[in-house]
# Entry
Amino acid sequence: MNEEIYLKYQYALKMLNTEIEILIDNFVFHNGYNPVEHIKSRIKTEDSIRKKLEKKGLEYNEKNILLNIPDVVGIRIVVSFLSDVYDIVSMINRSNNLIIKKRKDYISHPKESGYTSYHLIVLVPIYLENHVEYIESEIQIRTIAMDFWASLDHKIRYKFPNEIPAPVSEAIENYALDIKELDQKMYKLNQIVDKYQNKST
# Structure
């Protein structure tokens, strides 16, 4: 990846981080509650981009990176409860600076592996010397439980570069269902807590 393209991705990441920070601050101001546990952001490594293009059967070049890898810039927002995921999505929907190009709700429609998360591909404006460009970036939004499962799932799958044994794959899928059930329970618990807080005010 040449230096100019890499700089554009760096600008996009800075813009995205700033916009998300402002949106969250505004949410907290109006709701008196911060749903975010933590945020991670990154630019994909050159090796990771190369491997992704190889899987798609594409040559490693600037054009193919820009047209076929929409998640070179990525940010992950981890929230407390299931309802918070959709609050964050609504918050991003209202942004005047981010343009949502694509969305995938893996919470309502999990992957076969059991993976759950909410993904948005957004266009992030970067302000260059004489013009504005839009850089595709990915936003992932998930609960603590989803993030815990995804992290361990990734580590386990990494141990099997070729094919995951059926018993391991089945166990991963079953534990994904446990995570989903836990999220539902914690969501209901949060609703109960909210009711008691409302009574005391």
User: Anything to note?
Assistant: DSSP finds six helices and five strands in the chain. The chain has one domain: 3-151. Residues 3-151 form a domain with the Beta Polymerase; domain 2 fold (CATH 3.30.460.10). The mean pLDDT is 92.
